[in-house]
Amino acid sequence: MKRVAIIGGGTGGTLVANRLRRQHPAEALEIVVIDRDDRHVYQPGLLFVPFGLEDPDGIVRSRRAQLHAGIEFRQAEVDRVDTAASTVHLGDGESLDYDALVIASGAKLLYEETEGLRGAGWDESVFGFYSAADATALREALTGFERGHLVVNLVDMPIKCPVAPLEFCFLADWFLRERGVRDQVEITYVTPLDAAFTKPVAAEQLGGMLEQRGIGLETEFATGRIDGAEHRLVSWDEREVRFDLAVVIPLHGGAPFVERSPGLGDDLGFVAVDVRTLQSKVAPNVFAIGDAASLPTSKAGSATHFEAETLCANVERALDGQEPRGSYDGHVNCFIESGFHKALLIDFNYEVEPLPGRYPEAHLGPLPLLRESRLNHLGKLAFQPLYWHVLLPGREIPGVGAEMSMAGKHAPPEQGGQP
Amino acid sequence: MSTMTYAGTAVDVDAEGFLLDHGQWNEQVAAEIATEAGIGELSERHWLVIDFMRKTYLESGAAPSIRTLGKVSGVPIKELYELFPKGPAKLAAKVAGIPKPRGCI
After folding, report:
1. pTM over 0.90, yes/no
2. Residue in chain A lying closest to B68 (CA)
3. Per-domain residue ranges of chain B
């Protein structure tokens, strides 16, 4: 019997395991999911924790419990992958041979890559919100924060959910207004990019929203070190931003076993794959999905979800000895919380940047793209139960196709659209 | 796409001035791009970075990130910011005649 090994029991690993299980009876295909722990975090929920809008325990469930019957869950560290031998070496000294391997091991937060980040002032004036523990510690600090300079700092791309730092700024503005202390707090978003966001049309819209809310924007600031004792961020070119409370999004990298597996990863430890087929560049029976993959698209759950269709088909093709098909187009869509019970929605792919318009239907929508609306906020809230009950089990979300559609999008004239 | 002339050589560039064909690059082209970008005369340290960028790109098909530059090129990140102010990975790529590092989003 053939075996598919899946490293990582998060969004990508779970979704792929469940989809494959539904397609192939347990007598025909063995599926093993490996993860070092049994805590599956609904990561979009982390953004809400610091503002008391989400309970940190409410966004964590058992990884094992999300897997369909007939999928083996193995709790172990991965030491390395020997792609030539098609073997995964586990941390406990055991090994597992595979016919096809799916790497879904996500991204790791590399606090240690930024000098001083977890040094003096960590959990006192310097915080994060990209893990449940960090977000919970920040909640305590924000509750008592009433005056001073709140700085939100993106250290460098790529990060998971690239819009989350901006959403954090919008929600902080709202949170402080609700508490009547906004006029005593200065908020600044400090980014290494040359604008609020990477893509021009969305960057202009999102930059405008920062301005409307009186949130400062410091661009091209490449954080070299964090001096918590002196309450300042120092850039590589010796610029300085002083803060009373800093919220830092640390550098990201791939899982450590990727670096220990020759040829598998790129220079940040993300798995080097073909951007259309998701097949590894070193072995035809190895694939990567989601945050673990080195793809020029967002590291986001929606991208992972859209990749799954291509990936599952190509795993099946690899098991049958066939060539993969290149059908993933880089499609992502994300809700961007903007506070005051509103959100924006963006939908894009490798070629098309986020544009205004309507989604998923051209005229009917009902969701407006790149514009704040209550309906988008409700969409964001509605997504959490869909995540656990529809997306992870491997069912289809009605109306949301894996391939991006231009229907309803307004392209700027230079991209061939009507002015 | 447009065409620029550096050191008497016509080269094709994108909207931000990155060479579209690294084969059109030579050392004089690099020197003129550097002058235009306000870097001034290229030192031995600049060339170390430029050569590393080109080598990495030609071998792997992708420009190295600033983290890789700092770890592997032999030039520490702090010095990279002195050599190529503001965005070393981006600016060094431009001078090295390779595409803009992909802004991953």
Report:
1. yes
2. A267
3. 2-95
Residue of B nearest to A251 (CA): B67
Q: Cα–chain-centroid distance for residue A203?
A: 19
The model's pLDDT over B38-64, given as tens digits with 9 standing for 90+, comes to 999 999 999 999 999 999 899 877 788
Residue A208: closest CA among A226, A195, A221: A195
CATH architecture of structural domain A2-43+62-107+254-319: 3-Layer(bba) Sandwich (3.50)
Chain A, window 295-324: residues with a beta carbon less than 8 angstroms from a chain B beta carbon:
296-299
Tell me: cis bond preceding A158? Omega within 30 of 0 counts: yes
pLDDT single digits (tens) A388-416: 999 999 998 888 889 999 999 998 766 65
Find residues 30-69 of chain B whose CB sits inside 8 Å of chain A: 60, 62, 64-68
Q: Does the pLDDT of residue A419 top 50, yes or no? A: no
CB contact under 8 A, A198 and B105: yes
Cβ pair A125, A228 in contact under 8 A: yes
Tell me, yes or no, if B104 is annotated catalytic. Answer: yes
Rg of chain B on CA atoms, in Å: 13
